[in-house]
Amino acid sequence: MARESYGWDSHVWRCPSSHLTLAPMVLSLPPLSSLIQSSSCRDWSNYVDSGEYRHQNSGECSDKINDVSPLKSAFAIFDADFFNDTKIAEITKGAIELNIPISRANRKLVASTNGGLHDPSYLVFNPDWGSEQVQSKSNSKSKRFRYPSLSGIQRPESEEDIAYMTVLELGELIKTKQITSEELTRIFLHRLKRYNHVLEAVITYTEELAYKQAKEADEMIARGIYLGPLHGIPYGLKDIIAVPQYKTTWGSTTFKDQVLDIEASVYKKLKSAGAVLVAKLVTGSLASGDIWFGGRTRNPWNIEEYSSGSSAGPAASTSAGIVPFAIGSETCGSITYPAACCGVTALRPTFGAVGRTGVMSISESLDKLGPFCRSAVDCAIILDAILGKDPDDLSSRDISLDDPFSVDITNLTVGYLDDAEMEVVHVLESKGVKMVPFELNYTVDDVQGILNFTMDVDMLAHFDEWQRSGEDDSYEAQEQWPVELRRARMIPAVDYVQAQRARGKLVREIRESFSVDAFIGNATDLEKVCIGNLVGMPLLVVPTGFTKISDPPPHGTRRRTPITTGIYAPPNHDHIALALAMAYQSVTTHHRQRPPIDDLGRNDLMLDSISAQPDH
Question: H helices within 400-547, ranges in order?
Answer without folding.
Answer: 422-430, 447-462, 464-468, 481-488, 493-513, 526-535
